[in-house]
């Protein structure tokens, strides 16, 4: 290491450059895959899935004019969730970091709010398609 | 462990703790609370290069404990994420430094460390809330890891060149 030149990029080895290239390809591919999932997630109505520790506790619609307040209790812990006009946020929580409250409002498919201490995840999903509902 | 070595390692722990605390002031634009860039990995690399994997893991362990103590997040989920990320990335970097130093430069080793650091954090977060949906942020964090890993790698390489060996 002591012989390595630190001027500019000369320090990089071939393996370094291959590694960087590979990681960028993986990352961009993954991001593309995620975007593709977002695009194909359907144009149906948006709903918010509220789950605690991996199990969905409640699913609420996100649309104009709809309001709801949810007192989510999980043992001794609580999160107060508010839904107003197609957007959702955690208004209040007893978690020590308060990061979920500071996350603010979300309202686009695949957006998430996470409260790690209370194991709460709020995820916005688009309904697969409205065709199913019409068929019924 | 002689006194000089102990003092330098304490200094490493202090610097790493400060980096750990400072970066917690700048949350990343991710909905996953507590994800850190891993700037303190600079110190892990220095500890690996100067002393070895045992000392480097010790420094990483102590910095997460001290950093979390000052950040007020001891034993919370972000503590688990930081600890997992710090120990795994330090172990992986030490292994590559030991056995594959001829292939990868310090910058390459640092990037690999950063990738493991970020991946470990997100996997721990996903396990905590039992949601695989969080793993969709992994590619973004890998992209971040290339940038921060290169940054910390160049910094570490520069410091390794500048710090005189006889002061250690
Ligand atoms: Zn919270």
Overview in brief:
With 136 residues, chain A is α+β, with helices and mostly antiparallel strands.
Keywords:
heterodimer; A: 136 residues; alpha+beta; mini-chromosome maintenance (MCM) complex, domain 2; 2 domains; 4-stranded antiparallel β-sheet; 3-stranded antiparallel β-sheet; 7 strands; disordered N terminus; disordered C terminus; B: 168 residues; mainly alpha; Arp2/3 complex 21 kDa subunit ARPC3; binds zinc ion
Give an overview of the whole structure.
Chain A has 136 residues and is an alpha+beta fold. Chain A folds into two domains: 5-40; 46-126, N-utilization substance G protein NusG, insert domain (mini-chromosome maintenance (MCM) complex, domain 2, Sandwich). Chain A is 26% helix and 36% strand. Chain A is built from three helices and seven strands; from the N terminus they run αβββββαββα. Chain A has helices at 14-39, 99-102, 131-135, and strands spanning 46-52, 55-62, 67-74, 77-84, 87-93, 112-115, 120-126. Chain A has a four-stranded antiparallel sheet with strand order 2-1-7-6, with no helix packed on it. In chain A, strands 3-4-5 form a three-stranded antiparallel sheet. Chain A is extended and about 55 Å long. The relative contact order of chain A is 0.16. Residues 1-8 and 129-136 of chain A have low confidence and may be disordered. Chain B is mostly helical and 168 residues long. Chain B has a single domain, classed as Arp2/3 complex 21 kDa subunit ARPC3, CATH 1.10.1760. Chain B has helices at 3-24, 41-50, 53-71, 77-99, 106-129, 138-162. In chain B, helix 4 (77-99) packs antiparallel against helix 5. Chain A binds chain B through residues 1-2, 4, 6, 11-13, 15-16, 19-20, 23-24, 26-31, 33-34, 37, 51, 53-55, 96-97, 99-100, 103, 106, 110-117, 119-121, 123, and chain B through 27, 31-34, 49, 72-73, 76-78, 101, 103-108, 111-112, 115, 125, 128-131, 133-134, 136, 138-140, 142-143, 145-146, 150, 154, 157-158, 160-161, 165. The complex binds zinc ion (ZN). Zinc ion (ZN) is lined by residues 93, 95, 99-100, 115, 117-118 of chain A. Zinc ion binds next to helix 2 of chain A.
